[in-house]
């Protein structure tokens, strides 16, 4: 709308303001609608105004008015045919962008830089009821690379889970998972490893995959390992590898009766290792991967909840936002979610764990709290909390002033 028309509407509005006539209301509405559109930081088709004088008299210099426009994100204006109104769509909020809802976390201040996810990789040990669901969640979140370890095959008994399909029966779990995940998001690279990590013949292949080929960039180690297995021996193998090569990892588990579960963060030297305290379920000494006559219960709801917590904490760890819990339990019968902090055992039977604790203690002497791997995330959380409290206080003061309190 030309400046002269806006000028005319502005003058006419002030004339109308002296008369309380019903037929002047549409004119006032048109004026305010025009003003909102032409001064809105995204809807405006030209530079925003510094003051009301700019609207009618162009009192400020063009260079001053264009400063804000030059610095803001370029917007794409489209017409919504159904609703008959203008929409503001930039590259991150278009409906044809699969990451638009994820990038909203950055625009809303939840995550400082969500695009970091494209530089991250995770290794998932176990592609069962929890591991496969976590892999799907992270794939949908746009992670750069996933390493999948499992030597089992898809069976019809797996169909009560949330991931595999009947036509995939007989396929190795990692190949079936790769097929599905690449169909969901071809941007995520899925690398399958169909071997038993607890066997000595595959130990070196397992280590090389984590330390040499695991990163999103060639030659870099994996950023985080997620252990989603159902046996004690595999957990000990993962614990040993992560201590030896200083790999952060998260462990998860679901009880045999399928009504409880947990996730745990394990940072070598910082938090307890898996051998620092007795395991939640004592091993029987029998092979746990396949036991004749034993059928553990399986609820997709419990596994989905545990997988959700695990994926959420993975994102918080990789993208440095929020609080990454060291241990979260889940009791489905009582809807109980205990969260506890466990200290590392200085007398741990694993000598590598004790050495990692000593190294971390030395770093704390020189670096203080900054030595903790999650220090940056804690600082951001504290800063965000202070900002929220300040905003809430300002809103309360404004409400009180408006109410005459």
What is the arithmetic mean of pLDDT?
Answer: 77
Helix content: 40-55%
Beta strands, count: 9
Top CATH class of the largest domain: Alpha Beta
Low-confidence stretches: 37-90, 280-289
User: Rg, please?
Assistant: 29 Å
- SSE sequence, one letter per element: HHHHEEHEHEHEHEHEEHEHH
Number of domains in the coordinates? 2
Shape: globular
Distance between the termini: 43 Å
- Largest sheet report: 7 strands, mixed
CATH architecture classification of the largest domain: 3-Layer(aba) Sandwich
CATH-level-4 superfamily name of the largest domain: NAD(P)-binding Rossmann-like Domain
Number of helices: 12
In the CATH hierarchy, the third-tier topology of the largest domain is known as Rossmann fold
Strand content: 5-15%
Strand order of the largest sheet: 5-4-3-6-7-8-9
Quaternary structure: single chain
Q: Could you say which structural class the secondary elements and strand pairing correspond to?
A: alpha/beta
């Amino acid at each position: 709308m030309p400046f002269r028309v806006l000028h005319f509407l502005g003058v006419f509005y002030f004339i109308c303001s002296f008369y309380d006539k019903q037929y002047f209301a549409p004119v006032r509405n048109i004026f305010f609608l025009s003003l909102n559109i032409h001064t809105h930081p995204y809807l405006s088709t030209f530079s925003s105004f510094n003051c009301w004088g700019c609207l009618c008299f162009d009192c400020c210099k063009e260079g001053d008015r264009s400063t804000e426009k030059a610095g803001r994100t370029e917007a794409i204006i489209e017409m919504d045919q159904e609703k008959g109104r203008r929409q503001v769509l930039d590259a991150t909020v278009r409906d044809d962008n699969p990451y638009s809802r994820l990038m909203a976390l950055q625009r809303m201040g939840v995550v400082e830089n969500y695009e970091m996810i494209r530089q991250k990789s995770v290794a998932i040990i176990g592609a069962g009821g929890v591991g496969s669901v976590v892999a799907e969640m992270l794939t949908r979140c746009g992670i750069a690379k996933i390493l999948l370890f499992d030597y089992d095959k898809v069976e019809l008994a797996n169909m009560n889970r949330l991931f595999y399909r009947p036509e995939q029966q007989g396929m190795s779990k990692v190949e079936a998972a790769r097929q599905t995940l690449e169909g969901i998001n071809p941007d995520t690279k899925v690398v399958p490893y169909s071997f038993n990590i607890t066997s000595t013949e595959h130990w070196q292949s397992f280590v090389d995959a984590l330390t040499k080929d695991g990163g999103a960039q060639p030659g870099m180690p994996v950023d985080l390992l997620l252990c989603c297995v159902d046996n004690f021996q595999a957990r000990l193998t993962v614990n040993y590898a992560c201590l030896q090569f200083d790999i952060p990892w998260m462990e998860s588990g679901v009880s045999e009766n399928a009504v409880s579960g947990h996730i745990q963060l394990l940072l070598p030297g910082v938090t307890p290792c898996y051998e620092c305290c007795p395991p939640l379920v004592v091993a029987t000494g029998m092979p746990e991967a396949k036991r004749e006559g034993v059928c553990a219960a399986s609820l997709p709801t419990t596994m989905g909840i545990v997988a959700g917590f695990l994926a959420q904490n993975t994102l918080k760890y990789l993208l440095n936002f929020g609080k990454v819990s060291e241990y979260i339990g889940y009791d489905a019968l009582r809807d109980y979610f205990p969260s506890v902090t466990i200290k590392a055992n200085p007398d741990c039977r694993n000598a590598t764990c004790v050495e990692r604790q000593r190294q971390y203690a030395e770093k704390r002497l020189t670096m203080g709290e900054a030595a903790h791997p999650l220090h940056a995330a804690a600082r951001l959380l504290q800063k965000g909390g202070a900002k929220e409290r300040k905003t809430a206080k300002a809103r309360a003061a404004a409400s009180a002033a408006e109410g005459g309190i």
